[in-house]
Amino acid sequence: MTDIVSIDPRTGAAVETVAAETSEARLDAACRAAAGAADGLAALGRSGRARMLRAMAAELEADRETVVGLADRETALGTARLNGELTRTRFQLELFADSVEEGSYVEATLDSPGETPMGPRPDLRRMLVPLGPVAVFGASNFPLAFSVPGGDTAAALAAGCPVLAKAHPAHPATSERCFAALQRGAAAAGAPDGTVGLVHGTEAGAALVAHPAVRAVGFTGSLSGGRALFDIASTRPDPIPFYGELGSVNPLVVTPGAAAARPQEVADGVTASFTLGAGQFCTKPGLVFLPDDDAGLAVAERMAGAAAQLAPGVLLSEQVRGGYESGARRLAEAGGVRLLAEGTAPGAQGWGAPVRLMSVAAADLTAQTAEECFGPATLLVTYRDQAELAVALEAVPGSLTATLIAEDAEEALAAELEPVLRAKAGRIVYNGYPTGVAVAWGMNHGGPWPATTSALHTSVGVHSIRRFLRPMAWQNTPQALLPDELRDAPQDPLPRRVDGELRR
Per its UniProt entry, which superkingdom is the organism in (predicted)? Predict the structure, then answer.
């Protein structure tokens, strides 16, 4: 059986053996335990699940020092960044606790019996109910907020679905520590055994998606890995939804007016955004559209000067660094692409990689050059006029974000570009930078393929809970058999739509 080893990316050295790859028997037992926990988790009710989520947040907070230290040793992301990420992770759990108590997410709907223009109508009551056990695949670049205790886990548990977390091989020790905190929180709230489970190993991850107990999958990772799991989920005897976030180039457009009015500000903002976290953000601007004029050239020169002085970033794993280097080579070999600047070279040890800034004319942008290069690199795309910009944007694949840096006086241009950008992404950022995703009711973190497998949903914010629920209706059903949310006088009041009228 293969050992799961924790590696320090700063040195490339193995530090400890964390676990063994999950065997077929242990995987089956974990999946069966999750299935067995589903009714008990639902029986906790909204208030009980809210208590559980808050208890999990408290356990993570109590173990902050150790969790952050482990995550830093396994990812080299730095304790300042990781302390912020743990705070975000705790906040996600607490926000979902609030939303579960508030209750509008279940979409409780009651239609009274009576005569209608179409004839008699029965008593109808409808709400959203949990799907069942959910498999969650953690991301390498967010060992807390998008991993074992992250947003997919919080959303699924809030919905009432047990979670089987697949630990990412880039941070297995962190995954184990966070899993233990979730277990303690579940036990403190009286949740049943099997509410949370943990799986290690590539083969075990594939088998997890195929297991009949699993009813949905949340995934954040590479296009190749996500597509392979998506195909497993889709070709099961009983296909299940696969909510995958797979990769994004996040186009950023700088208008002629903005380039002329604030070249230094734009250059600093774009450079900081594409190099943040060594370029390992899913919302990193990978394609930056600049006007092919003196103002655009000034922005590019400032970016090149800054990039050349930047120290190498430490990437998350040997696999990530290999993908970055091969992606950079692919871009360098593409027609018309020039290397404008390269940061200082990394040392011999660890998974370091230099910053790279490249450029290409909009007329030479192709599907190959428009692919994501995960890491500290971006491609400047120079356009001569608005018509050439519009054509070039058509070559951009589906993304999580699209950004427009423009002046107020360019309102007409912005109005023309907005629908083009809207067709390419799930979130438009105006005069800001896309790295950083707020956890809020109004956030949408999704987008057209290949950014996600389902542009209908978000993986960040309260509305992400919708992925793990299905609608259910009760007709002429006695009060005692109805969920509390649909009874005439629910014990835990919540917003409901009654005979077409929204009532609070």
Answer: Bacteria
Distances (CA, A) of 439 to 155, 181, 429, 459: 12, 21, 16, 10
Q: What is the DSSP string of 168-225?
A: -TTSHHHHHHHHHHHHHHHHHTTPPTTSEEEE-SHHHHHHHHH-TT--EEEEES-HHH
Q: Determine the Cα–Cα distance for residues 195 and 41; give it in Å rounded to an integer.
A: 7
Contacting residues for 192 by C-beta, under 8 A, at least 6 apart: 36, 37, 40, 41
Alpha carbon distance, N-terminus to C-terminus of the chain? 55
Residue 344 is classified by DSSP as P
Residues involved in catalysis: 245, 282
Residue 459 to residues 53, 155, 226, 452, 454, Cα–Cα distance (Å): 18, 9, 15, 9, 10
CA dist 408 → 118, 291, 297, 437, 502 (Å): 53, 17, 22, 25, 39
Distance CA 193, CA 179 (A): 13
Tokens found for residue 183: 């277990």
Helix (H, G, I), strand (E, B) or coil at 137: strand
Series of mean pLDDT values for 10-residue runs along the chain (504 residues): 93 96 98 98 96 98 98 97 98 98 98 93 98 97 97 98 98 98 98 98 97 98 95 97 96 98 98 97 97 97 97 95 95 93 92 97 93 96 96 95 97 95 97 94 96 96 98 98 96 96 92
Distance in angstroms (rounded) separating the CA atoms of residues 226 and 247: 9
Strand duo 252-254 + 399-405: pairing: parallel
Nearest to 42 by CA among 192, 167, 142, 253: 192
Q: How far apart are the C-alpha atoms of 387 and 153, rounded to whole Å?
A: 44
3-state secondary structure 274-322: HHHHHHCCCCCCCEEEEECCHHHHHHHHHHHHHHHCCCCEECCCHHHHH
Contacts of 375 (CB under 8 A, 6+ apart): 278, 279, 280, 313, 315, 320, 321, 323, 324, 327, 328, 353
CA distance 421 to 390: 10
- 333 CB neighbour count, 10 Å cutoff: 9
- The 8-class DSSP code of residue 246 comes to -
Contact between residue 128 and residue 161 where contact means Cβ atoms under 8 Å apart: no
Q: Which two tokens stand for residue 432?
A: 């800001």
Task: Kindly state the tokens that stand for 176.
Answer: 């184990």
pTM of the model: 0.96
How many other C-beta atoms lie within 10 A of the C-beta of residue 259?
24
Query: Which domains are seen in the chain, by residue range?
Result: 22-102+130-246+455-473 (3.40.605.10), 252-430 (3.40.309.10)
Three-state DSSP string of 262-278: CHHHHHHHHHHHHHHHH
* Other Cβ atoms closer than 10 A to 65: 11
Are 375 and 278 a contacting pair, CB within 8 Å?
Answer: yes
